Each structure stands twice: as structure tokens, then as C-alpha cells.
Amino acid sequence: MAILSEHEREHIVETLGELERNVKLIFFTQDFECESCRQSHELLKELADLSDKMSLQVYDFKEDKEIVERYRIDKIPALAVEGEKDYGIRYFGTPTGYEFAALLENILAVSTGTVELSDETMEELQEIDSLIHIQVFVTQTCPYCPRAVRIAHKLAQANDWIQADMVSATEFPHLANKYDVFSVPKVIINEGIEFEGALPERHFVQHVLMAASSRT
Amino acid sequence: MYDLAIIGGGPAALSCAVYAGRKRLDTVLITKEIGGHLLLTSGIENYLGFESITGAELADKFAKQMAQYDIDEIIGEKVVELTKQDGFFRIRTEGDQTSEARVVVLASGKRSRTLNVPGERELTGRGVAYCATCDAPLFAGRKVAVIGGGNSAFEAVIDLLPIATEIFLIDIAPHWFADQILIEQIEVSPKVKSFQQHRVIEIRGERRVSEIVIEPAEGGEIKQFEVQGVFVEIGLVPNSEFVEGLVKMNQYQEIIVDCHARTNVPGLFAAGDVTDVPEKQVIISAGEGAKAALSAYRYLIRHKGQV
């Protein structure tokens, strides 16, 4: 049975009608799929089918080691959303619930190459010259999480040093445990800086800059 | 200078925006997020025209309708200051963005009430939660406490039933205020242990919640339970601090309005959960928001040219 309803497909086609450049959905799973991987795989297949400008590439976590390493994938199911290049945009876990809308926005942004961030943010991001790894822990029923995920992914799209991951706390409970995730969204930056809640862009960026400066 | 600034993003604010748009008022909507408490409500069955719809879907429909009109938006920051100037109002957000408007509609809604017990603030986000919809899935296989006796508390328990191993339901009142239909769903579950007429004294834990301590309201034996989560569902408080001293409020800090959505300050209107209009319901907020827009429009017509 299809995951996306007829109504949802129509809405997606309407939203993605504005796609410009091609978007690659690069998905990592394994031969013997767990429920999460199977669901993600099915969802992405149905999504990719809805536009000529979207393509789905599927890799095996165990077999395709070179690609896995290139995309810095350490757990599955994993998705990289790529446009003109790999912006460091990742989803670990199934992007359903509220996160699905964020995924559509992400695809649009990557396709048009536009990043909606303030001029102040764009200027501040130029200070970054070392790797920044942002992990945003979410649950699928959390309505505030997509905002944090969107900001993180926009930052990744705007700056080559930044990789931003959506991480599903329910699908990776051992990681939720490791990072003491008891409220979502919870953002971890370079392991050391963390905050809870969907902070406005300005405050989010300040935390990123803190992480950048604590390396020097 | 805008004609109208709307503060808030829930049903009252969005309905106000639609009406303002249709009157072609030059409008800005300033809010932390679009949807308000609709986003925390999974099922709505009493909004006219929709037999059953999720809060998120309804919020989405409201937002799409507003998008048909030319309304400026400042989203992601809440308002921290509102001052009355000579013939207009100045609004400042937490991110220091300022706007000016000839009239303002306050539709900032409410937020969760806190217990104000030791440990609560320190452990917020570390086991103390105010949004069962968001955070329930994080407590799989854990023991949790739910504080409250109304629909929100009962809906939180229902969300947690398939997830938690044990649920302590604690409330200060001698009887439940929730709808009977929800009470019946909880009563049959062996996972739920209820404590009516009990208050929370302390929430304990180091890096995360580990224990909750309660006592009977009339005094008596103190009880403590090992829990990893505490969901606080004891009602809501109005987001009206930023206009304290400017507008008249009742003893609950709700903004007092007349039946034209007018506050005691000329040019300042209010709608929705932040006001003293009883019965906080989506359909009522939407109606009040529309009224506020029309009242604001009439005020602007009468004060044309006077900025």
C-alpha cells in the first residue's frame, strides 16, 4: 500500500512545480532492511517519482563503503539531499510527520539554489573556517522541530564547512540517550555546544559561532 | 508605518489577518510561530465545517488563506515590548526588530503554566516537559508523571499509554475536570496510578529527572516515585507581560476587552486566548480575531489622517 495519499501527492506536485535544477536524493540502506529503512526507502521512491527533476540513488551501507565514507554516513536510514553539489544536508531516520514538509522546503531550496538567511547571518558565516557538525534531534510529532531543522540545513547550504543532520530521536534511541535528549528539538554542535528548543535564526547562529571559536 | 500590527500567530491572529487583508489594510503579523496551540492539538472535532481535523492541518489551512492577502510577516521572534507613541504604537521583538503601526491587535495567546517547585526549572528539557505531543515518544519504556486533571493532562496520559511503562497522574483538585470520554479511557488502564488531591513538592534529579515528590493537599504522608519524565499540564497563562502597565487586565493577567475587541487603550485591540473572553476555543478565537480586525478598521476610518 502506498505511503503517500492521492491528496498528499497532489500537494507535493504543486509544491515541487517550481523545481529548477535537478535534485538528487541519495539514500543509504542495507540489503536486509529494518522497518525504518524500509519505510524511508518506500517514501523516497514515491517522492522521487513525482518529479522529473528529482532522482533517487540507493546505496548499501555495508557494500558501498567508498560512497558511505564520502558522504560521512555512520548510521542508517540516511538521506543526503544534493543539488549542484553536496551541501552537507543529511537526514538520519524517516523524514515523516512534520519533518516531511521541511524536506520538501529543503528540496525546493536546493533546486533553486536560494538560501533564506538574513544578511547578518550570511556575513557572520564567512568567519567560519573549520568543520561544524550540527545534529538536530527531533521526533516526528514535534511541531517545533522542523524550524530548527530548516535553519540547520540552510546554514549547511550556505557554508561549505557546515554539515547539518536531522536525527530522529525515536529511531536512534541510543544516540538520544548519549546526548540526554529529553525534549525536542535538541541541537548539538560539534559535540560541545548544545541547546534545546527552536531558537530564532540569530540565536542559533550565535551558538554555531561559539562552536567555531572554541576550536581555535 | 503600518496601518495595523497583529501580534500573535494562532487562530485569532490569522483570522484577524484575513479580515484586515480584505479591507486592504497595510498589515504586519509578528509572531514566534504560525499556528499557536493548534500545533499541539492532534484532533479537533468541534470547529464548524470540519468533522475531524488535526491541529496542524487546520493551522495550515488558516495560513494558506492568509497568504492570499498582502500581509507582511515577522516570524520566529516574539514581541517583548509595546509602547504607545503620539498617535501610533512601536513594537520591538526579542531579536530587536522594530515596527510601527497606527493600531495594534494583541492576539498573543497563552503558554503553559509552571508548577514553580524546586527542580522544575533546572530539569526543564531534561525530563520536565510541557508538550506531550512533542516529547512523549522520548520516554519509551520509562516511568513518567503527568500533573493536571483537565483535558490536556488526560490527553497527555493517553499519548503516553502505549509508550511509558508506568504513569503517575497527579492533581491537586478532588475531582477530574476532563471530559468523561477521556476519563473512561484512562480508568481501565493498569499502567495509570492516580493521586487526586496531591501537590508536587519537588522534582529531583542531577542531569535528568529521577524522582518526583508529592504530598496530600491536606497534609500527610509524603510520597516519592522514581520517574524519568514529568509532564506538566496544569493550564495556561496569558502572554501579556509585554503590555503590563499599558492595558487593563483581570486577576489572571488576561487582557480585558469589550464586545468590540477594544482594550482600555484607544487604538489597541485584543483577541483570542490572551483576553478575558471565557471559553478558550479555536472557533471563538477565530471569531474574536475577525471582530478585532473590523473594529480596528472602523477606528482607522474615524481617525483618518491622524497619525
Question: Could you characterize what this model shows?
Answer:
- The complex is a heterodimer of chains A (216) and B (307).
- With 216 residues, chain A is of the alpha/beta class.
- Chain A folds into 2 domains: 6-112, 3-Layer(aba) Sandwich (Glutaredoxin), CATH 3.40.30; 119-213, 3-Layer(aba) Sandwich (Glutaredoxin).
- Chain A is built from 8 helices and 8 strands; from the N terminus they run H-E-H-E-H-E-E-H-H-E-H-E-H-E-E-H.
- Chain A has helices spanning 6-16, 35-48, 65-70, 98-112, 119-125, 145-158, 173-178, 201-213, and strands at 23-29, 54-60, 78-82, 86-92, 132-138, 162-168, 186-189, 193-196.
- Chain A has an 8-stranded mixed beta sheet with strand order 2-1-3-4-6-5-7-8.
- In chain A, strand 1, helix 2 and strand 2 (54-60) form a beta-alpha-beta unit.
- In chain A, helix 4 packs parallel to helix 6 (145-158) and helix 5 packs parallel to helix 8 (201-213).
- The longest helix of chain A is centred in the middle third of the chain and has 15 residues, at 98-112.
- Chain A is globular, with a radius of gyration of 16 Å.
- The mean pLDDT of chain A is 91.
- By secondary structure, chain B is α/β, with parallel strands linked by helices.
- Chain B folds into 2 domains: 2-112 and 236-302, FAD/NAD(P)-binding domain; 128-232, FAD/NAD(P)-binding domain (3-Layer(bba) Sandwich), CATH 3.50.50.
- Chain B is 22% helix and 28% strand.
- Chain B has helices at 11-22, 55-66, 132-135, 151-160, 180-187, 282-302; strands at 2-7, 27-31, 71-75, 79-84, 89-93, 98-106, 110-112, 128-129, 143-147, 166-170, 192-195, 198-205, 209-216, 223-226, 229-232, 236-238, 268-270.
- In chain B, the strands form 4 sheets. In chain B, strands 1, 2, 3, 4, 5, 6 and 17 form a 7-stranded mixed beta sheet that branches. In chain B, strands 8-15-9-10-11 form a 5-stranded parallel beta sheet, with helices on one face. Chain B has a 3-stranded antiparallel beta sheet with strand order 12-13-14, with no helix packed on it.
- In chain B, helix 4 (151-160) runs parallel beside helix 5.
- The longest helix of chain B is centred in the last third of the chain and has 21 residues, at 282-302.
- The N and C termini of chain B lie close together (9 Å).
- The mean pLDDT of chain B is 93.
- The A-B interface holds A 98, 139-145, 147, 169-170, 173, 176, 180-184, 186, 196-198, 200-202 and B 33, 35, 39-40, 56, 76-77, 94-95, 124-127, 129, 131, 133-140, 207-209, 228-229.
